[in-house]
Design brief:
5-stranded mixed beta sheet, elongated, Glutaredoxin, Serine Threonine Protein Phosphatase 5, Tetratricopeptide repeat, single chain, alpha/beta, about 300 residues
Length: about 300
């Protein structure tokens, strides 16, 4: 059945980089019918069953990812305009890892559709409204071909939209700066947050995330990979490839590359590679199984 697939992974960030609590977007405006629903593992079977009546768009993201929040807002507008011929299910992929694993999703935002319980890949990363509209039209046509062309009532009228829980001011300033593409301002905000509270784990992780964005924003992936392949023992070349791998969701490749470099080199370059690897561990998440496995490999190399 799979057909629709488009945009790209531009704007996609590995799941491990999206940590802890943050305000969740309000899904509806008061008084407005909404075919958008946030789901968890308990509600997931209901959404699968609903896909026998109408196509279900499943958006796996994180409230910590500005790209995810923006995409869900765009998807909601397009879906609600269809007035019940399709529905949107939003998933906090970090809070609901079982759902992310079921779809084999490793980076957010990722969008997958369900028709008759069968997954239909859509796209990863950000997308324009026109692209979303075009893909949804294709999906509705595909659904009709498989007898899924009904109409369902709205999940709510939006009269009880949940209130947002505010972030600390400096964290909010950092996230707004990231959304605006001003990574330097975001870096400054996180630094101030750490100056005020040195044990602010979220600020430390956020600072590492922003520094990763700064390092990779103007890089050409093909050129970085070519340089890395030609210079296996050049520290900066290997760090650059590892950064790009993490941004693209190839976490294990990034970790393996730096562990191997550390095993072949000594002195200041070894320490610099180790320090960068620890930064990347914090971005991906200290409890992530890939981080745990890499730490074990690093320990064997160092000791």
């Amino acid at each position: 059945m799979p057909e629709p697939t488009a945009p790209s992974s531009r704007g996609a960030i590995d799941l491990g980089a999206l940590k802890k609590n943050a305000p969740e977007p309000i899904e509806t405006t008061a008084g407005t019918p909404s075919w958008v629903r946030k789901i968890d593992q308990e509600l997931f079977p209901e959404i699968v069953a609903l896909s026998q009546q109408v196509p279900v768009i499943v958006s796996l993201g994180s409230p910590r990812s500005p790209a995810s929040v923006q995409l869900d807002e765009l998807l909601a507008v397009v879906i609600n305009a269809k007035a019940g011929t399709a529905v949107l299910a939003t998933v906090d992929a970090e809070a609901e890892p079982q759902i992310a694993q079921a779809f084999q999703v490793t980076q957010v935002p990722s969008v997958i559709a369900l028709i008759n319980g069968q997954p239909v890949p859509m796209f990863q990363g950000s997308a324009e409204v026109s692209q979303i509209q075009s893909l949804l039209d294709e999906l509705l046509s595909l659904g009709a071909q498989h007898g899924v062309a009904g109409t369902v009532p709205p999940f709510s009228t939006g009269s009880q939209a949940p209130a947002e829980v505010p972030l600390p001011p400096l964290h909010q300033a950092a996230l707004e700066a990231i959304e605006a593409g001003d990574y330097t301002a975001a870096e400054i905000a996180y630094k101030h947050a750490l100056n005020e509270k040195p044990n602010d784990t979220d600020a430390a992780i956020g600072l590492n995330q922003v520094r990763l964005l700064i390092r990779t924003q103007d890089q050409d992936l093909a050129a970085v990979r070519a340089t890395g392949a030609q210079n296996p023992d050049d520290l900066n070349a290997q760090l650059a490839v590892a950064d790009m791998d993490v941004m693209g969701g190839h976490v294990e490749d990034a970790f393996g590359r730096l562990v191997n470099f550390i095993g072949r080199n000594f002195g200041d370059e070894r320490e610099a590679a180790r320090a960068r690897l620890v930064e990347l561990y914090s971005i991906v998440g200290t409890n992530d199984e890939r981080v745990v496995a890499s730490r074990q490999k690093l320990a064997r190399v160092l000791f």
